[in-house]
Amino acid sequence: MSNIYKAFENGKAFIPFVTCGDPDLNTTAAVVRAAAQSGADLIELGVPFSDPVAEGPVIQAASMRALAGGATTDKIFELVVDLRKDVTIPLVFMTYANVVFSYGAERFAKRCAEVGVDGVILPDVPFEEKEDFAPICDQYGVDFISLVAPTSENRLAMIAEEAKGFLYVVSSLGVTGVRSEIKTDILSIVEVVRKHSKVPFAIGFGVSRPDQAKQMARCSNGVIVGSAIMKIIAEHGKDSPPFVAAYVKEMKEAIVSL
Amino acid sequence: MSRGRFGIHGGQYLPETLMNAMIELENAYNRYKSDEAFNKELETLLNDYAGRPSRLYFAERMTNVLGGAKIYLKREDLNHTGAHKINNVLGQALLARKMGKVRLIAETGAGQHGVATATAAALFGMECVVFMGEEDTKRQALNVYRMKLLGAEVVAVKTGTATLKDAVSEAMREWTSRISDTHYCLGSSVGPHPFPTIVRDFQSVISREIKAQILEKEGRLPDAVVACVGGGSNSIGSFYHFIGDKDVALIGCEAGGRDVHTFETAATITTGRVGIFHGMKSYFCQDEYGQIAPVYSISAGLDYPGVGPEHSYLHDIGRAQYVPITDDEAVDAFEFLSRTEGVIPAIESAHAVAYAKKLAPEMGRDKIIVVTISGRGDKDCAAIARYKGEQIDE
User: Fold this and answer.
1) Model confidence over A17-45: pLDDT tens digits?
2) What homologous superfamily does CATH list for A4-255?
């Protein structure tokens, strides 16, 4: 077991996502530190992939900028080595199956453990295919994090029962991105998840505003925000850290005591 | 737990949001594939609407010019809509209708699968949205117009390299946002299980017919079957009923682009390595960190960085051979077949013709090669003219 449980010990968790290397890795390091100091409980570090099929336009564009800027898996591991000098909150990688498969699943998991990455999220690896990755992650004490979606229905219990670290609840249909309204009947999903999951669960996809975060945090252990953060970074580039810090602070304050 | 494997290849690597849709599709397919009424309905559509069986034509002039093996052309270009794509689309559209879906979405490269899907949607009164790389909408403007004429919406995909792979990604994204009334009519033998199997089964009518036709004409099986491979639907369809006939060589022709020694190639099996993308484990063109490579071919239909998992398996076990054909060789074959036989092949199919040109003279006159002409070349004339430095208005 990793340290991920610690992210859920300080009220409702706020979990920002940052694409590593957009616009460059130094900015990513500064953004992660700013977020950690402003109340982020866990940070998802996106390892960019050329063709991210679960992402909407904002994170697609961030991934393209990061790759064009020269971000690679090895450089991102080095980024984590640097971050771990002072960042103590749990960090997880979010990337795609081919990035890990190409690096070698075992080599990837081993390196995660060495540098201090607590978990791995692969949105294109469903329950049926996790055998390629999950047992190896387990072996190195890295949590292989599962996702459930509004369409999971009869699959919810099966996935929740084997969840490690935390369970990622996808709030709505479609890809990542800012939504004006989340219409899914999230409570019915949450009810099943709560019954079967031994780990905390956090809701992501489409959350950007404090009122949405409150709505999602009331019925879960935490909220994940990606596209809204990457929009700030797209707008402010290297000057993003204070803007991200202010945003994280506002979002964490909105949900901490719910 | 994983389903749909061809050796190590295949599987179902896709977002959880789509998993129940895949299971629903697999269950429906398993139910209907052996359903007599379904198959009767499909056969009637294939024969009366699409014009099957397609001809197996003895290319006598080509044979004589090359001076070696007898060459037969499997004329999928004669199907309604001008390519083999209609075989799969009619099957999937019928299946989608049985599943209660009222909307078809599809990706397209050269536009042939998009046109076929738009055609089936018109025939069945279904809504249709086709995703096409922006680059390809320029290369294949005529097919864009055909799709719109047939009532489909065409979405020009601007992300990534704005070609076939990006069209597939965007169709997958669209499917995750609207599943209940929509079927993703995937056009090649790629993607997550059960697509590679469904597409292969619906395309296997090609090799079933070749076998019966060649036995009737020659009284024996061919020595080689040659077809072009992008994702690999016409080739797996051409190979399938011969896989058990070990004396029949199966040869897939990949898009070599400017050459396999350059980065401007789409020859996946020749230059790629095993990876996981678009729902499947298979061979992919990629860099050392697993980033999918921006591939290139003159042929929009073969301009794809991956290949179907069954092809990867046939390669691994040595049952099929995969060879790269350059743009120049394909264009040369495009012109050769037009002048020698009066058949203008799709630039995709011209890759298979190009290899047959090399192979036939090396084989004795008592040998037989079947070349699948997967589509007709009208759509390519303007682009080939430009390639040759001639400007024509479509």
Assistant:
1) 999 999 999 999 999 999 999 999 999 99
2) Aldolase class I (3.20.20.70)
Residues B376/B83, Cβ–Cβ less than 8 Å:
yes
Q: Return d(Cα B257, Cα B265) in angstroms, integer.
A: 4
Q: Is the peptide bond before B222 cis (omega within 30 degrees of 0)?
A: no
- For the CA atoms of B127, B4, A103, A238, what is the dihedral angle to 10 degrees? 20
Please give the DSSP secondary-structure letter assigned to residue B243: T
| pTM, two decimal places | 0.96
Distance CA B102, CA B107 (A): 17
In DSSP terms, which residues pair with B128 in a beta bridge?
B104
Q: Which domains does chain B have, with CATH numbers?
A: 5-46+84-199 (3.40.50.1100), 53-82+204-387 (3.40.50.1100)
Q: Cα(A136)–Cα(B19) distance, rounded to whole angstroms? A: 23
Nearest CA in chain B to A97: B276
Domain boundaries along the sequence of chain A: 4-255
pLDDT, tens digit, for every residue of B205-252? 999 999 999 999 999 999 999 999 999 999 999 999 999 999 999 999
The whole-angstrom distance between residue B121's C-alpha and the CA centroid of its chain comes to 19
CA distance B223 to A99: 41
Q: Which residues of B105-128 are buried (b: 16+ CB within 10 A; e: fewer)?
A: bbbbbbbbbbbbbbbbbeebebeb
- Between chain A and chain B, the number of residue pairs with CB atoms below 8 A apart is 125
Is the Cβ pair B14, A155 closer than 8 Å? no
Mutation pick from A64, A102, A148 vs chain B, by most beta carbons of B within 10 Å, is A102
Q: Give the strand pairing for A91-94 and A43-46.
A: parallel
